[in-house]
Please model this.
Amino acid sequence: MADRVRHIPEATVARLPVYLRSLAELVDEKTATVSSERLAEMAGVNAAKVRKDLSYLGSYGTRGVGYDVEYLLFQMSRELGLTHDWPVVIMGAGNLGQALANYGGFTDRGFPVAALVDADPSKVGQTFHGVEVHHVDDLPKIASDRGVRIGIIATPAAAAQAVADQLTAAGIRSILNFAPAVITVPEESSLRKVDLALELQILSFYQQHSQPDPEASGSRT
Amino acid sequence: MADRVRHIPEATVARLPVYLRSLAELVDEKTATVSSERLAEMAGVNAAKVRKDLSYLGSYGTRGVGYDVEYLLFQMSRELGLTHDWPVVIMGAGNLGQALANYGGFTDRGFPVAALVDADPSKVGQTFHGVEVHHVDDLPKIASDRGVRIGIIATPAAAAQAVADQLTAAGIRSILNFAPAVITVPEESSLRKVDLALELQILSFYQQHSQPDPEASGSRT
DNA sequence: TCGCCCTCGTGCACGATTTCACAAAGGCCC
DNA sequence: GGGCCTTTGTGAAATCGTGCACGAGGGCGA
Model:
């Protein structure tokens, strides 16, 4: 149905990778077909949502049977653009940047780290986990030479906006921001944020509100 | 107005830390009062949303003037439970766990790392960035001795659920999961997820769809 | 003290997302 | 080949979150 309509809700897009991971697990355990119910359980959502989400990709299920695991996996990979690797650059070779370069989770899942980039000349030329640090002035060249389309900001908050601008100038329009700062990018760019301390603060909120704090005056939950 | 009503929407809760950060910046630059408009700009949202969000905390603004920065900062810190530190444990002393222990961003923002915990005896006793690795069997003791209420899962996906259960058993009911796996926790626990590869996959989707199809769009902030 | 101006707090309409419920459709057994 | 059973795909309703528009209220100048 939603074949011509190329608009997939943002909330759905955010769940697709979770389904993808579940499907990969099913392939590993040699399961041939899967029902929306089973997939829902694996992905931690509800079955109706799974069916609606998958229907945005097309009608890939078989009524009375379920979804063919391999076929769905392939279609979803294609939709997510994961049929090939996407090299990334990490901006900032400090603590966080090094840690990210060191973290195998990116490369494993099709996002090899093409380069670390830093403004500090003393860092340039060093290597972390096989990834070389380049100077930020070389960013445009690196990006075009290596086909980098995704940039990861791992600088201090103060530098984040400037770095985002440099990425944009280098033609990189997908940005993942780890810096604890609000940054703006051009309309046509995509921006996602990961703020570690922010997540903890949210947990703190719920912790605070889950049980009556003897110190807090008055209010009940 | 919403004084008796203690229910703050999840979406609002997720924005409070962003406002908090903006307020901290304003304090640094010695700004005494701030309008919803200014705060909105700093937080990257719209002014009406700021006012609505803040109204859940109480009527802390002054019409015609704006919000008193220090007072609002205090009230918000209190609401978020950030008037004191929350020690955390990091489960898993592998690549990611070490990196997180090494990352100063937690301690700086009131979440000191009390301990690293691992199941591997050969890791126990080692120290990373001043944080000692303990055996997982000692988790309950560590948690109660040090008042740890928040656990961070930094293990491989396969171990994530078991570790979540161990945290729960140790009385820890706020969990931040970095492992690329869906885990379930008891009803009364809070769970937040950070999946690095998943974020990149989402970016990949929009990248994939921005190019061939001129009408597709990315996410904005 | 009076009145004007500015910005908050919020009712309301709208849009997005979730959930329900069920008809349609494919496979399988007899 | 027909009917039954299962599970999808999808309208429609319910819920949640957003943004607008405006009345209320407070400060400040005259």
About this structure: Chain B is about 45% helix and 15% strand.
